[in-house]
């Protein structure tokens, strides 16, 4: 039986009783001990990827194991293989690469979020936004970067500067990923 390799999570998908004891509803949230694949064995050479995306409603993987997942984090980029040490990291804008069992690699641009590696070789990627790289355009990314730099220069208060800085960083990472 294949393990689920992706799970979509959005607050809208939770039952109204989420967080409370409620017969008939199981919160299949990683770490809750209620995972639908609890008790199944994961092949020792594979990583199971759980892509958790909010607010976009997309499942990138479902029912497939992968060899490796490369993620960009605030402390640096790293690759996740089976039996990786458990960790929780903050994603920075950049490219998440998923290496399939057949050797192919698929790249996704993520704006921000978190990545959690569990002891059972499951990986959760919780991204604010994620798209496949083929959906992106370099000219548009460069134009958006120029606009963000202009917004930052024109910002009159700290909050506006901080928002513009986030846009600049995300667009710089996007341009770098596409070049």
From TrEMBL:
Coiled-coil intervals, chain numbering: 138-172
Domain (F1F0-ATP synthase delta subunit C-terminal) spans 136-177
Its chief place of residence is mitochondrion
Q: Where in the cell is it found?
A: Mitochondrion inner membrane
GO cellular component assignments: mitochondrial inner membrane; proton-transporting ATP synthase complex
Tell me one GO biological process term: mitochondrial proton-transporting ATP synthase complex assembly
* Record keyword Hydrolase present: no
Looking at the record, the residues that make up the ATP synthase F1 complex delta/epsilon subunit N-terminal domain are: 58-130
Q: Where is the signal peptide?
A: 1-19
Give the protein's biological function: Subunit delta, of the mitochondrial membrane ATP synthase complex (F(1)F(0) ATP synthase or Complex V) that produces ATP from ADP in the presence of a proton gradient across the membrane which is generated by electron transport complexes of the respiratory chain. ATP synthase complex consist of a soluble F(1) head domain - the catalytic core - and a membrane F(1) domain - the membrane proton channel. These two domains are linked by a central stalk rotating inside the F(1) region and a stationary peripheral stalk.
Assembly and binders: Component of the ATP synthase complex composed at least of ATP5F1A/subunit alpha, ATP5F1B/subunit beta, ATP5MC1/subunit c (homooctomer), MT-ATP6/subunit a, MT-ATP8/subunit 8, ATP5ME/subunit e, ATP5MF/subunit f, ATP5MG/subunit g, ATP5MK/subunit k, ATP5MJ/subunit j, ATP5F1C/subunit gamma, ATP5F1D/subunit delta, ATP5F1E/subunit epsilon, ATP5PF/subunit F6, ATP5PB/subunit b, ATP5PD/subunit d, ATP5PO/subunit OSCP.
Q: What is this protein called?
A: ATP synthase F(1) complex subunit delta, mitochondrial
What is the organism field in this record? Geospiza fortis (Medium ground-finch)
